[in-house]
Amino acid sequence: MDARKEGLPRNPHFSAQPRLGTLSPFFLSCAAYFLLWIPEDPPSWVGALVKGLPVLCLLGLLRVCPGGAHSSVLQGALVFSALGDVFLIWPQAFLRGVLAFTVAQLLYVWAFGFRPLQPGLLLPIALASLPFYGLLLLHLSPDLVLPLTAYALALSTMLWRGLARGGSAGWGALLFAISDTLLSWDAFIQPLAHARLLVMATYYAAQFLITLSSFQSPRPKTN
């Protein structure tokens, strides 16, 4: 039924799904990243640009095709994600990258909202994450404990709110957590085979799905 024909108001929290043409820059930039496979050592601005371009394309998508509620908040999260991508290219800027991604996670939490609350999700998230974070803390230098603990709390909160929202937000939040878990394990605990491929594939998929959530109608606001 066409709301305009029936004289009914449109849902302000829903926007039509973006077309393939508007998504193609993201897919092409992802293909460029994996095909070029620019070495991370030594770090370079070219490598940083190629790495951050897919997220910037998602930002452009939301600028061209504004989604529903909190689209502007998601745009802010993508900006800080792109900054984090750039900072993490250089080892000396690692903490800046952690800070940028912490802000991004908090913005995702804001975008997902707190309705429905679904506190029952907190227990399985805690049971899944606390053993890993405990193991990770054993391998961190003292200067990294506080910033990475803060980031872990922000990430876990984002995962909770994404799963509570459901749809592509839930899948995106889950893939983001998987990507960061793989990255942390490879960087601080034990090197993983094909770690970069696994981390970046799950990361780009997570950002894509979270961005798509802006075009989806939210769940009814019930607990």
UniProtKB/TrEMBL annotation:
| An MF annotation (GO) of this entry | alkenylglycerophosphocholine hydrolase activity
Cellular component (GO) terms are: endoplasmic reticulum membrane
Which Pfam families is this protein grouped with? Answer: YhhN
Question: What Enzyme Commission number(s) does the record list for this chain?
Answer: 3.3.2.2
Provide the primary localization.
cytoplasm
Tell me the keywords, alphabetical order: Cytoplasm, Endoplasmic reticulum, Hydrolase, Lipid metabolism, Membrane, Transmembrane, Transmembrane helix
According to UniProt, the reaction catalysed is: a 1-O-(1Z-alkenyl)-sn-glycero-3-phosphocholine + H2O = a 2,3-saturated aldehyde + sn-glycerol 3-phosphocholine; a 1-O-(1Z-alkenyl)-sn-glycero-3-phosphoethanolamine + H2O = a 2,3-saturated aldehyde + sn-glycero-3-phosphoethanolamine
Q: What EC class is this?
A: hydrolase
Which PANTHER family does the record associate with it? Answer: GH04784P (PTHR31885), LYSOPLASMALOGENASE (PTHR31885:SF7)
Assembly and partners?
Answer: Homodimer.
The entry assigns this protein to a family as follows: Belongs to the TMEM86 family.
Protein name from the UniProt record? Lysoplasmalogenase TMEM86B
